[in-house]
Give the backbone structure.
Amino acid sequence: MSANLRDQLQATLGNAYSLEQELGGGGMSRVFVAVETALGRKVVVKVLAPELAVDVNTERFRREIQLAAQLQQANIVPVHTAGELGGLPYYTMPLVDGYSLRSRLAQGVPLSITEIVSVLRDVAKALAYAHERGVVHRDIKPDNVLLSGGTAVVTDFGVAKALSAAKRDGTRGATLTEVGTSLGTPAYMAPEQAAADPSADHRADIYAFGILAYELLAGQPPFHGRSPHKLLAAQMGETPEPISSLRPDTPPLLAELVTKCLEKEPDKRPQSATDLVKVLETVTSGGGLPAMPAILLGGRRRLGRALLWYALSFIAVALIARAAIIAIGLPDWVFPGALVVMALGLPVILFTGFVHRGTHQALTAAALTVPSCAMVSDPPASARSRCMTIWGWSSVVMNFDQLNAGAPTRYPL
Ligand SMILES: Nc1ncnc2c1ncn2[C@@H]1O[C@H](COP(=O)(O)OP(=O)(O)OP(=O)(O)O)[C@@H](O)[C@H]1O
Ligand SMILES: [Mg+2]
């Protein structure tokens, strides 16, 4: 079925839609851009992956999608139409003219605090609206947040729920994790969702929202780089590193909000997404600084990486100099000369690392002890000068480090 899924889908849609390119999809579905013939507009057609459809009761899936289709709110990608293709549920939605938050993160350029708060506020509004109508997302993650014209919109509402609700009787006992990442994604799963607790509710979305916020601020979610199995264990039992130590310019209110959303016990989290919106509106009113240079976010590991690159470059230059003497007859002094030039780079790297570390510590202390620069509209002179000093240093450090490490700035280390 999957090989000619596209042809079958086109045949089912008939003249109403003309399929164009396929968008890269997750494991859950196949996603196509199509033109809706009657209106001449582009839409997206999403078909449940044939592998998942085997166990799905399409009637229940249809009912859940119908519920999600009731959602009409500016930050939610609506469902246009739904149907069935030889047992595979599909639905259509508007083509969002933009890109996903995942692609934005993949650019490696940190989002500013202002941008982050704006995205989070939009996502929280979408959640608040849906939760009030009894719809839980269950798969909040950067892939399901699309950015368009300065607004964030949430897609795939109710789809993970539809899948879990639609599992046939014979497989209803299966846990979410047994069906892999399709009914939620381990990196964003609330502890109760990871444990397949049937009483998991909208507060699982609030936890996932906390992970999303953490990732936007730190550049990666908590427990990054672990296997799905270990991730699930960490979601249930491990406390993430405080966000302020990874992103020192996080406004304290926002840092506190992230920590609360990531509470293991649903009762200890903010109880509604409306609460999230309220807090985020307070954070926004404090304004925000542009993103802190990525260079300041890495801590000690950046120096280690710079030294590693330096050592590798040193060896490479030595080898090339030697080879040049032997192969093209350059004078013998070229070899020691090349080594001396390379050696001069070492103190510069060490000095940069020293300054970098001091600046990082100062920023961390500032974020934890005084309102961040971003939160103070008219800071006292001492705070103002501290902010200016930090930013002055940051440019110096950034230039030095980029010059010496030679590697593209990634966010964060
Ligand atoms: N309405 C839409 N408009 C524009 N792009 C979309 C739309 N819906 C999905 N996409 C894009 O299509 C791609 C595939 O989406 P899809 O939802 O299948 O995958 P995913 O979100 O990465 O994973 P998952 O299957 O877990 O949801 C993503 O890059 C997504 O950004
Ligand atoms: Mg998706």
Notes: The beta strands are 17-23, 29-36, 41-48, 81-85, 88-94, 99-100, 145-148, 151-154.
